[in-house]
Amino acid sequence: MNDSRPKIGVYVCHCGINIGSVVDVPAVIEYVKTLPGVEIAREYTYMCSDPGQNLVKDDIRNEGLNRVIVASCSPRMHEPTFRKTLKEAGLNPYFLEMANIREQDSWVHEDHAAATKKAKQLVEAAVAKASVLEALEEKEVDVIPSCLVIGAGIAGIQSALDIADAGYKVYVVEKTPSVGGHMSQLDKTFPTLDCSACILTPKMVDVANHPNIELMTYSQVEEVTGFVGNFKAKIRKRARYVDFDKCTGCGICAENCRLAGKIPSEFDENIGKRGAVYLPFPQAVPAKYTIDPERCLQLSKGKCGKEGPACAEACTAGAINFEQEDEIVEIDCGTIIVATGYDVFDASRKPEYGWTGNDNIITGLEFERLVSASGPTGGKPLLGRDKKGEGGYLPKKVAFIHCVGSRDESVGNEYCSRVCCMYLAKQAHLIRDKLPEAEITVFYMDVRAFGKGFEEFYDRVRREGVQYVRGNPSEIYKKSPDPEDHTVVVKVEDTLTATPMDYECDLVVLGVGLEPRKDVREIIDLFKLSQSTDGFFLEAHPKLRPVDTASDGIFLAGCCQGPKDIPDTVAQAKGAASSALILIASGRVKVEAQVSFVTSSECRGCGFCVEVCPFGAIELVDENRMGNIVQVALVNEALCKGCGSCAAACLSGAIQPRSFKDEQILPQIAVLGVRT
Amino acid sequence: MSEEFEPNIVAFLCNWCSYAGADLAGTSRMHYLPNIKIIRVMCSGRVNPLFLVNALQQGADGVLISGCHPGDCHYLEGNFFARRRFMLAKKLLEQIGVDPGRVNMSWVSASEGAKFKDVIDETVAKAKAAGPMEQFRRRQINW
Question: What is the ipTM for the molecules in this complex?
Answer without folding.
Answer: 0.94
